[in-house]
Amino acid sequence: MHLHEAVVEFALVVEDRPARVVGQVPEQLALALEIQASVNSAHDAVNEIRGLHGQLDGLEKRVGASHKDIADAAKALDEKAVAIESNLIQPKSKSGEDPLNFPIKLADQMMALSSTVETNDAAPNAADYTVYNLLKGQIDEQVAAWGQLQKKDLASLNEMMKKAKIEFISVAPPKGAEAM
Hints:
Order of helices and strands: HHHHHH
Shape: elongated
């Protein structure tokens, strides 16, 4: 397959709005991109946790009562990981009406903020930045807790498995990360 490079000129045309609104688009875009990066970070952690969850479930079935200490450690690790996932997203939400039945979590709250920022006809205001900073801090805290769980609890479980000569468990990097 041959790829061809093409250069195309284009013009960005902004809707017919007052100059004060047009001048605020870069600030709006900057915050929207920061919000999206935070949501992506949360979703990457959730995807990794779900991958780990499947492996831990399989491990518990695989070792059963023959290695109760490993099965217990796997269960404890899974419970901690699921708690982090449940802070980042609402795992019970499966349909469009479910946000009415279950509270939305950090990633969804951040996406709601994104909608507000992107559809407003003005630059983000102080309240937008306050909410962003609050949610970003909480998401970062959960993502950091996930990182620590991998470094400590998962490493400890893998060490136990190594001593028992049972295959390791690992977390696959998010799609696209292997190219970096």
